[in-house]
């Protein structure tokens, strides 16, 4: 079976399940940034309730999780499957909950959630981003823009988290020479800053895989290679990291026409 036909085969089977209203292709396959080895990401949008037992009943090999098994937040479960010799992820999406996040985003409202494999956590508007970037295969789904109110609110929240993360790392780890803890904090702050940069530009984010590249923060890699358990060296690293974030924030504020960052005020 060709890659052209494959997503429609999966979508047809998912769309036939009880209470499923729409099916979308997401991730790199939907955005055209995939490689031959990339997984296939599908979201099934249901209303009211969804019973994973119906998905198991199709007979595709793999692991099918219960609703809420992935933390109980906006990512409320899914499955890892093998279909036609391809690795497939299926995400459960409560359409009522997703539409609620669309409405909240229009008002500049959202919340932060922890999620495994995401160092900086995720914003609740991630499920809105999936709609904006995905390809609807079956049913009808909205394709929201990035509201101005959300751009401002998200930029501010992520910027402030990055500032606080670095300030904590400075106070808790630099003087003690805790290179591992400090390095972890730098990684988190870089990803938080990347979220802030892309929010200011009005660019949707669905995961962290290419987040630093998109935000122009890949330079952090070179800075972190200098980490060692010496307070003076960690202090120099902190200064270098902040300099990179200053540049990224300055560009985001200018390009996104957002309000000025406190980093820029420190120049």
From TrEMBL:
Top-level division of the source organism's lineage: Bacteria
Gene3D superfamilies: Beta Polymerase, domain 2
Pfam families listed in its UniProt record: NTP_transf_2
InterPro entries xrefs: NT_sf, Polymerase_NTP_transf_dom
Record protein name field: Nucleotidyltransferase domain-containing protein
Polymerase nucleotidyl transferase domain: residues covered: 18-51
